[in-house]
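Feature request, filed as a ticket because there's no other form

It would be nice if the structure record came with a short human-readable summary line next to the tokens. Right now we just get the raw output. Example of a typical job, pasted below so the devs can see what we mean:
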Amino acid sequence: MYRNLKPNPYPLNNYVQSLDYLEALIRVMSKEEGQKCIAESEGGYQDVFLELDHVQLLSPPVKAVAAMIVFERVVSDDEVDADDRAVLARVKENGAVPTKGSGFGMYHQDAYEIIGFENIQNFRVVALAEGVVLRVQFYGSNQIT
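Raw output as currently delivered:
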């Protein structure tokens, strides 16, 4: 009886080479691998100041495939309010408008990641407190130059 005692040579643990190749291709095409920061001079980093109860969209660069957002509550130009335990904002990624009672609640220093240009365009946020700032870093793909 034949037994295959060799270790799996494929990095994603598929024993069939074609399935491993297909999985890797899907990950590359869906932009899950190979992301790099877009330079600030190209609009890759933005500070978005939110108005209370006003729905805000992001303004991504054309080549953005992902974004990392950090929520902060700023008291003054040089002071960040680190003791605030209230929900600062609510977000939705499906294009619908978040409200005070609907959407993911975000707190001070929470990080939120968005994958995919369409999801970045559909992202909506509404501030539930004064002085909320989004620190946004956009990422491009190594496959797109």
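Something like this underneath would help us a lot:
The two ends are 52 Å apart (CA to CA).
The CA atoms of residues 12 and 23 lie 8 Å apart.
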